[in-house]
Design brief:
Porin; 60s Ribosomal Protein L30, Chain: A; eleven-stranded antiparallel beta sheet; mainly beta; 15 strands; four-stranded mixed beta sheet
Length: 353
């Protein structure tokens, strides 16, 4: 039942937005803080097995630090270290009755998560994930006062978690995203804690934690800014004023450099106009969107520019009149954050000068 609730919470966080945007690529770090709710823990005495009950806890604080790597296809692998704090509220015992308690519980350890980013075509990227690891739970002087019981000790066990959240890419800082997230963690197996100063030890079977976090995630290697296009040489003073530049836009499918039928028509029109107007140079400049790595995008923009230039030559434009430039993912027609598939940024600009 607890796992189903956690999966439902993760789904609710991830589904409000449709899937289209490009997720994280490369290494990143993350830091988040929030609150942790520890579920009721059932216990049983080791010697007097007929005596049993449950511990009830108050919500308290939580922190998670992570290091991960985005594979570029929507998947991320993330290693997380966590610390959860809870104070105890009450003990309900079948022999002692209900007792107020003092003390706290520290839960800490590490898990490895596999996370999937759900692209949306916007700055918002929902994600879901699952993982497993090892957690230690420390009972820090859990005392029921008049009954004379004080439970202490640290015990660990295998653990698994389910998580879901939404990341928002901050436009002013490339690579930086704000996150909100919910996690469910279950520590499996039995753990034994001693009752000081010499009473019967107790056994805890499992432990559930619900954690709600807000934080930041930063991609370590943000795309570098490319050099701007060289300025055209000034015309001689005696030359007549040039005709206004004419620009033609040729768009491409994602991760493609081949021409669509519509692109072929636009190139043919540019070639035809270059023959009937005063044109000294055809500038052919290739661009990409921000999905993919900067190195790959630079190469892709060059392939696109060369494809358009070759078609201009086929349509009768002398190769000596064509200047080819490649600008990768810089000079975006539509400003976006990193890792976004934007059709209008996948283009070649033909400028008749």
């Amino acid at each position: 039942m607890k796992l189903r609730l956690a999966l439902a919470a993760a789904t609710c966080l991830a589904l409000p937005l449709a899937a289209h945007a490009q997720p994280v690529t490369g290494p990143y770090v993350s830091l988040a803080g929030g609150t942790n709710i520890m579920d009721t823990q059932n216990y049983q005495y080791v010697i007097n097995s007929a005596q049993q009950g449950k511990f009830l806890f108050r919500p308290s604080y939580a922190g998670v630090v992570g290091f991960g790597y985005g594979l570029g296809n929507g998947l991320r692998i993330e290693l997380d270290g966590n610390f959860y704090r809870n104070t105890i509220h009450k003990q309900n015992d079948n022999q002692l009755g209900g007792l107020r308690m003092t003390g706290g519980v520290n839960t800490y350890g590490g898990v490895a998560n596999i996370i999937y980013d759900i692209s949306t075509g916007s700055a918002f990227t929902p994600y879901v994930g699952v993982g497993g690891g090892y957690e230690i739970q420390q009972f820090e002087h859990l005392s029921n006062g008049a009954a004379g019981d004080v439970y202490s000790g640290s015990q660990g066990g295998a653990a698994f978690d389910v998580l879901g959240g939404v990341a928002y890419a901050i436009p002013s800082v490339p690579g930086l995203s704000a996150t909100v997230e919910a996690r469910f963690m279950q520590i499996t197996g039995k753990r034994t804690y001693h009752d000081y100063p010499g009473g019967d030890s107790i056994t805890i079977n499992g432990s559930s934690n619900y954690t709600f976090l807000a934080g930041l995630r930063y991609a370590l290697f943000s795309p570098p800014m490319m050099a701007p296009a060289p300025a055209p040489a000034p015309a001689p003073m005696a030359a007549p004023a040039p005709a206004p530049a004419r620009t033609y836009l040729v768009f491409f499918d994602w991760d493609k450099s081949n021409l669509t039928p519509r692109a072929t028509q636009i190139i043919a029109q540019a070639a035809s106009d270059s023959k009937t107007t005063t044109t000294t140079t055809l500038s052919v400049s290739g661009y990409t969107d921000t999905s993919g790595t900067p190195t790959y995008n630079q190469e892709l923009s060059e392939r696109r520019a060369k494809t358009v230039a070759a078609q201009l030559v086929t349509d009768g434009v002398p190769a000596s009149e064509i200047e080819i430039h490649a600008f990768g993912e810089t000079h975006l027609l539509v400003p976006t954050g990193p890792g976004v598939r934007e059709p209008q940024n996948r283009r070649v600009e033909i400028v008749l000068k």
